[in-house]
């Protein structure tokens, strides 16, 4: 059924919250910002930094970009590596590569940071395409996903995106590919939240995804 499988990073491949939060706190302190009472700092994990700044701090485009630049400079200096691969994720990737499946990454992380992170944790050897955000946030998640599909030379009907947030579900729907939503990350908390995006699977852990793809009818050999 699938010849290509595309992953989000934050909340899907890796728990990258520690490094993101460290850099967010640093940047908030530099800009003398306090987090509003009705928001959690974990809401910065996953979405683009600019979008989060506009939503949480009510920033305009220029200020949000300035904040994002500061955050990304700090993040790329080492905080990017404060992350933890999810249990059994390497097992899943090994299984998929043994089946000759093309693997891609589509993430809101800036692309250079994403590539550094994938290399640091040894993920780069599994992936045929790693696509991330531009520094100015001009690319939407759908744009990034379509870029990944193009690099993989994959037909939409034979691809699936795995992600933990509404941004992932919406991008998959807009790109016309299947979607697997996970609740072990930072976006979706329940299967009902995922069902809005017509998923082929709602996964509570990596083992759920392993079992899904172990079905030989789910993959093109």
Structure explained in plain terms:
The chain is α/β, with parallel strands linked by helices. The chain folds into 2 domains: 4-15 and 83-218, Rossmann fold, CATH 3.40.50.1000; 17-81, Putative phosphatase, domain 2 (DNA polymerase, domain 1), CATH 1.10.150.240. Helix content is 43%, strand content 16%. It has 9 helices and 8 strands. The protein has helices spanning 17-30, 49-57, 61-76, 89-98, 111-120, 141-152, 166-175, 191-195, 206-214, and strands at residues 4-7, 14-15, 84-85, 102-110, 129-133, 159-163, 178-182, 201-203. It has a 6-stranded parallel beta sheet with strand order 5-4-1-6-7-8, with helices on both faces. It has a two-stranded antiparallel sheet with strand order 2-3. Strand 6 (159-163), helix 7 and strand 7 (178-182) form a beta-alpha-beta unit. The longest helix has 16 residues, at 61-76. 43% of the residues are buried. The mean pLDDT is 93.
């Amino acid at each position: 059924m699938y010849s290509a499988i595309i992953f989000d990073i934050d909340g899907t491949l890796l728990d990258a919250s520690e490094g993101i939060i460290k850099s967010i706190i640093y940047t908030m302190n530099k800009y003398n910002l306090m987090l509003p009472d009705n928001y959690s700092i974990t809401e910065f994990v996953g979405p683009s930094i600019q979008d989060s700044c506009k939503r949480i701090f009510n920033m305009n485009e220029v200020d949000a970009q300035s904040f994002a630049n500061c955050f990304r400079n700090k993040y790329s200096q080492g905080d990017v590596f404060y992350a933890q691969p999810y249990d059994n994720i390497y097992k899943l990737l090994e299984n998929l590569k043994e089946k000759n499946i093309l693997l891609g990454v589509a993430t809101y992380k800036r692309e250079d940071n994403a590539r550094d992170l994938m290399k640091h944790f040894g993920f780069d050897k599994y992936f045929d395409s790693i696509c991330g955000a531009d520094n100015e946030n001009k690319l939407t998640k759908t744009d990034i996903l379509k870029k990944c599909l193009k690099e993989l030379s994959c037909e939409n009907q034979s691809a699936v995106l795995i992600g933990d947030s509404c941004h992932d579900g919406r991008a998959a729907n807009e790109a016309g590919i299947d979607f697997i939503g996970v609740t072990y990350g930072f976006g979706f908390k329940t299967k009902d939240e995922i069902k809005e995006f017509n998923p082929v699977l709602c996964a509570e852990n990596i083992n759920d995804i392993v079992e899904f793809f172990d079905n030989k009818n789910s993959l093109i050999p």
